[in-house]
Amino acid sequence: MYKLLIRPILFCFDPEQVHHFTFSLIRILNKIPGFGMLFQSIYEVKNPTLEREVFGLKFKNPVGLAAGFDKDAKLYKELSNFGFGFIEIGTLTPKPQEGNPKKRLFRLKEDSAIINRMGFNNDGVLDAVERLKKNNGVLIGGNIGKNKNTPNEEATSDYEICFEALFPHVDYFVVNVSSPNTPNLRALQDKEPLTHLLQTLQNLNLQKPKQKPILLKIAPDLTNEQLLEIIDIVDETKIAGIIATNTTLSREGLQSENRTEMGGLSGKPLTNRSTEVIRFLSEKSNKSFPIIGVGGIHTADDAIEKLNAGASLVQLYTGFIYEGPALIKEINKKILSNN
């Protein structure tokens, strides 16, 4: 129904406007008594076999929603009714920021892809905290970044602010230094600044009565040498794991007219590369840390491929937009059928 009737209508309009419209629609429908339970009955697959314990957390199933969809933690409860095992909010920054000028979100229909150059648009971490205080049972990841105007040499303090503000309200953290849409942000992936950033957050973490997992989200554009450095950094800082991968700057093999738009590319063109990164990290590290696989998951088989490559969990974003919420159910049912 989604792909035949709903998606063709939504895809006639500007993608950022559609995002806000569907947010409002999902919120309104969930306020109608019984609708939340109806969504759960349609999309949720409940089975103890789907449960996963990863970095000390218990996930009811291994399929999550990637960061960027619910940046400001405005819809995490309603989105969880579609059967997600966990929701990642953000990327959040210390201060509110509008992000890059519009138009900044583009569908590449022929490629089943999206290019975005949003630029960490969000209402600020403290605004999200107020909504997260109302959470009742949704497993939440907090994706954190730096404000655009914060120079790289001061970036660590931005991540510290977000870490401290979110700590009581999220189950795990994701350090985002791999978005291509904040100037010079990816320079923080270099070994020295990245080790310093992660170690600083780990030191804060170790001061807490109970620590929370810290993960690093990496770009798919890293070389094998850089990926080996990432493995070393994980080992040195003892962070909990990796999210592989963020969007790519590559435009190889694209067919759509608007393929030259600036920004990060997500969707089907990323399927193989993100799986390659997962497999490389898993094999070269001897599976010494968990990996959340994300990038180009449009079918249940895509998800299984990432799990087989070494991912412990997977996340959807562009596939959720193109394929609809039924994809979550299809993946979970495929996992059960493979057991």
From TrEMBL:
InterPro entries from the UniProt entry: Aldolase_TIM, DHO_dehydrogenase, Dihydroorotate_DH_1_2, Dihydroorotate_DH_2, Dihydroorotate_DH_cat, Dihydroorotate_DH_CS
GO cellular component terms, A-Z: cytoplasm; plasma membrane
Cofactor: FMN
Organism of origin: Flavobacterium lacus
Major subcellular site: membrane
Active site: 179 (nucleophile)
Keywords: Cell membrane, Flavoprotein, FMN, Membrane, Oxidoreductase, Pyrimidine biosynthesis
Name assigned to this protein: Dihydroorotate dehydrogenase (quinone)
Binding, substrate: 71, 116-120, 176, 181, 246-247
Gene that specifies this protein: pyrD
